[in-house]
Amino acid sequence: MNLTVLKRLFLVVAATVLCLGVAVPSEAVRIKDIATFSGVRDNQLIGYGLVVGLAGTGDKKDSAFTMSSMKNMLDRMGIGLNSSALKVKNVASVMVTAKMPVSSKPGTRLDVTVSSVGDATSLLGGVLLQTALKGVDGNTYVLAQGSLTVGGYSVNGEAAAVSKNVSTVGLIPGGGIVEREIPFQFNQQDSLTLNLRVGDFTTAQQVAERLNSVLGGGYARAVDSMSINVNVPQQYRHNLVPLMASVENLEVTPDTAAKVVVDEKTGTVVLGKDVRITRAAVAHGNLQITVQESEQVSQPGPFSNGQTVVTPETNITVREENRRLHLVEGATLQELVDGLNAIGATPRDLISILRSLQVSGSLHADLEVI
Predict the structure, then answer these.
(1) Per-domain residue ranges for the chain?
(2) What is the maximum alpha-carbon separation in the chain?
(3) Number of Cβ within a 10 Å radius of residue 269
(4) Coil/strand/helix, residue 16
(5) Tens-digit pLDDT profile for residues 264-291
(6) Hey, what's the torsion of the CAs at 334, 351, 369, 258, to 10 degrees?
(7) Main-chain dihedrals φ then ψ at residue 197, nearest 5 degrees
(8) What is the pLDDT of the chain when averaged over all its residues?
(9) How far is CA 170 from the centre of its chain?
(10) Which string of b and e fits 40-54 if b means at least 16 CB within 10 Å?
(11) Which are the contacts of 136, defined by CB distance < 8 A and separation ≥ 6?
């Protein structure tokens, strides 16, 4: 191989590296982190059951549904018993929930969450009796049973009480066994749909173009701002796992609208990187008004016929900060933050400033208050 051929090879490799660098910017993320595949999801299950073995922390005697549930269960076991003889302080009525992946098969174990629905004070040390978990279609998919793991405790005395975390919710790791699979034929699909977690037309089109460039044809099409339809290539028919593994690891650079998120409860302000503010003059000052009430008591002289008189007295103090106008302008996020910091405003002050800037038309972003 002569020197000319080596130079040409070097140029080809360099051009390829540069092209790859342009195609996948530093801010690129995987498709699996911004989108989900339609049909590949969890299914929520719910059931009602009883937790037994509690150390006197169960439901009280006036819990009608707990009494009724215990009597019905004992009747099915052939134990006839008067409901007045039942003691429910060691039993609690609970709701049992679980998330079942669409690919779960019979025999698969799932974690289940147990939550008290009565007036039980703690589920610590309890055991869940066999509970059927049903889907929205009314069919039973999982049977749950086992000892609870509770991440808190509660101790009550006559004059004091001590508690840590929540003791009326517990977890049973692997406590649910799948008895019926969800009727979903994954490998029989001729097309797939990717659903973006955040809708954006630019991102949807970018994902479609990225898929077409990798698959080598017009297989992908952006349907709307959140959905991309992908026709399965012939070589992946009835074998979608390799295709899914390749698609979800492709990297794209998502594009989102400029947004400012404000949480008034905590005073948190989050600015997106594309937030812009055109030039505006801002003056922000705090007005503090303090009202103090006091009473002056006037006592009559000795041996006089006067009366004690109470005279109210009010002192009002007004304090207003004198702040000058500041020019605020931001073409980048750093310039925007520097301009807002120059005003000397607290996070709660920024909420009022950002709202005023939006009303004036200087804030070019969507202001969302949560």
Answers:
(1) 42-178, 185-252, 260-294+310-369
(2) 128
(3) 18
(4) helix
(5) 777 777 877 778 877 777 766 654 555 6
(6) -20
(7) -70, -30
(8) 79
(9) 20
(10) eeebebebebbbebb
(11) 44
